[in-house]
Design brief:
Pfam families: INTS15
Strand content: under 5%
InterPro entries: INTS15
Structural class: mainly alpha
Protein name: Integrator complex subunit 15
Largest sheet: none
Organism: Myripristis murdjan (pinecone soldierfish)
C-alpha cells in the first residue's frame, strides 16, 4: 500500500483518512484471503495509518495535518460504518490492530485519544463489532493503557453527562466480552487508595446490577481464552475477581475515610450509603467463586490454575493493615463504630479467602495465609479460616476419579466415609450420622463447610 501515499497527499485531512480506510480494508481482505499465517500488516501500511489517520508528522519540516472537531466526528462515524459493514471478524480484528496496536512511538498518544472517542461512540450508537475488537485490544494491551481507556469511558458515561450511564449499562447484552474486560479494567484502575481512585457511585451500581443479573459475566474472558501460557504478564487479569475482592474488603474503611475528608473540606452534600451496594457486590463475588469447581473441572484446571494470586492478596492485606491502623489513630467517631467497620472488612476478607480456596480459585496452605495475614488484628472468622481443618483445598475438593482429570495425581481421590455413630442408649430417637458425601447435599461445592460450627453467610 506504500504506493498510494502520493495520491493521499493532495487531499484534505478527512478525505485522505477516508480513502486510506477504504484501501486498508481491501488490503487486509486480500491479506486474509492469501492464507498467509499469521497474517501481518506491513510496516509501510502502519506508517500510512500514522501519517494520514493519526496525523503523526512524517517530516519535521512539513506542516501538521490536523482535524477540527467536526471533521473528527465525521471520521469516527466513517470508522463505525467501516467496521459495521465488514462481515469477517478476522478482517475487523486485523484492521483494528493496524489502527490501534501501540507501537511505542509518538503516535501512541494520538492512537489512545482516537481509540477512546471511537469506543465511546460505539457504546453510544451500539456498534458491537467495534466493542468486540476493543475487548480483544483490552486483552492484549499493557494494563496501563487499558485503565486509561477505562477512565475515558467512566468519565464519558458516569461523570460528564448525567443519566448517560444507562447507555453504558446496555453493553452487558450487546457485547458481554467487552463488558467483562471493562469490569476488569475498572477493577484494576480503582484501588480505593484515594478519593480519585474510588469507583463512582453510578459505576458501582451498574457493576452490582450486572453481576446480579449474570454472575458468569466476569468469567467470560477466562472461559473463552485458550490458556497457552502466552498471556502477557503486563496485561489485565483473566478475571476481575481480585480487583472486586479488593473493593469489597477495603470499602468499609476507605469510603469512611473519603467521607470524613469531604466533611473536613466543608462539603455538606448528603452522600448515599454505599454499604448495601458493597454487601451486594461481596455476595455476588462469592457466588462467582462457587461456580468455579464445575468450570475448572471441565477445563481440566482444578487445582492447577489460581484465578486469585497470592501477591495481590498480600498487597491487599498490607493495604488493609494500614487502613486499620489509620482508623484506630485518627478516628473522630465512637470506638464502637470504628471497631464494627474494621471487623466488617476483616470478615469480608476471611469469607473471600474461605470460599475462594474451597472452590479452587485460590491455591494455598494455612501457612501461606498466616504469612500474608500476620499483620492483621484478631478476627474470629479469619482466625478460623487460618487455623481450621483446611490445608490444600485443591486436593481436598478433588471430585471422584470418574469426574476429575486430576484425581489420579491427587493423594486424596475420594472423600473417606465417616464412621456411623451408634445411637445413644438413653435417646433412642436420635438418628445415626450418615456418611460424609451425603450428609450435606445442599453444599456440594464446599464440603469442608459442613464441619464448621457456624453457618456460611456474607457480612452486611
Amino acid at each position: 500500500m506504500g504506493d498510494i501515499r502520493q495520491s493521499l497527499l493532495p487531499r484534505d485531512v478527512l478525505s485522505a483518512a477516508k480513502e486510506l480506510l477504504y484501501h486498508l480494508d481491501i488490503y487486509i481482505c486480500n491479506l486474509v484471503q492469501s492464507g498467509r499465517q499469521p497474517p501481518q500488516v506491513d510496516t509501510k501500511t502502519l506508517e500510512l495509518v500514522e501519517e494520514f489517520i493519526l496525523h503523526a508528522p512524517k517530516d519535521r519540516n512539513a506542516p501538521p495535518r490536523r482535524m477540527n472537531a467536526l471533521q473528527e466526528l465525521q471520521l469516527l462515524e466513517i470508522m463505525c460504518s467501516c467496521f459495521q459493514e465488514q462481515s469477517r471478524d478476522t478482517v475487523r480484528q486485523l484492521m483494528f490492530s493496524a489502527l490501534f496496536s501501540l507501537q511505542g512511538n509518538q503516535a501512541d498518544e494520538s492512537r489512545m485519544a482516537l481509540l477512546g472517542k471511537l469506543v465511546s461512540m460505539a457504546i453510544a450508537v451500539g456498534r458491537v463489532p467495534i466493542l468486540e475488537c476493543a475487548a480483544t485490544w483490552l486483552q492484549r494491551t499493557h494494563r496501563v493503557y487499558c485503565v486509561r481507556l477505562a477512565r475515558v469511558l467512566v468519565d464519558d458515561y458516569c461523570s460528564l453527562v448525567p443519566g448517560s450511564v444507562s447507555t453504558l449499562y446496555n453493553i452487558q447484552s450487546s457485547s458481554p466480552r467487552f463488558c467483562c474486560q471493562f469490569i476488569t479494567a475498572v477493577a484494576t484502575l480503582y484501588d480505593l487508595t484515594s478519593e480519585e481512585l474510588t469507583p463512582p457511585l453510578e459505576l458501582l451500581q451498574m457493576i452490582v446490577s450486572w453481576l446480579q443479573d449474570d454472575p458468569r459475566l466476569v468469567l467470560i474472558t477466562f472461559l473463552n481464552t485458550p490458556l497457552s501460557g502466552s498471556q502477557p504478564i503486563s496485561s489485565l487479569d483473566l478475571t476481575p475477581l481480585g480487583g472486586l475482592v479488593r473493593w469489597c474488603v477495603k470499602a468499609p474503611l476507605a469510603y469512611r475515610r473519603d467521607k470524613k475528608q469531604s466533611l473536613t473540606n466543608g462539603s455538606s452534600e448528603c452522600e448515599p450509603d454505599v454499604g448495601p451496594l458493597f454487601s451486594a457486590l461481596h455476595l455476588s463475588v462469592l457466588q462467582v467463586f462457587m461456580l468455579l469447581p464445575n468450570i475448572l473441572n471441565e477445563k481440566g484446571l482444578f487445582g492447577r490454575l489460581a484465578l486469585l494470586q497470592m501477591e495481590p492478596l498480600a498487597a491487599l492485606t498490607s493495604d488493609l493493615s494500614r487502613l486499620l491502623d489509620q482508623a484506630d489513630k485518627h478516628t473522630h467517631s465512637s470506638s464502637t463504630d470504628t471497631h464494627a467497620l474494621s471487623q466488617l472488612a476483616l470478615d469480608r476478607l476471611a469469607q473471600a479467602l474461605q470460599v475462594a480456596m474451597a472452590n479452587g480459585a485460590l491455591l494455598c496452605s494455612r501457612e501461606d495465609l498466616r504469612a500474608i495475614c500476620s499483620r492483621l488484628p484478631h478476627n474470629n472468622l479469619l482466625q478460623l479460616v487460618m487455623s481450621g481443618p483446611v490445608m490444600y483445598f485443591n486436593n481436598i475438593h478433588t471430585p471422584p476419579l470418574a469426574f476429575s482429570p486430576h484425581a489420579s495425581h491427587s493423594p486424596i481421590t475420594t472423600h473417606p466415609t465417616h464412621p456411623t455413630h451408634p445411637t445413644h442408649p438413653t435417646h433412642p430417637t436420635h438418628t445415626p450420622l450418615a456418611s460424609h458425601p451425603s450428609s450435606h447435599p445442599q453444599y456440594p461445592a464446599q464440603p469442608f463447610l459442613s464441619g464448621m460450627p457456624f453457618p456460611f453467610r456474607p457480612s452486611h
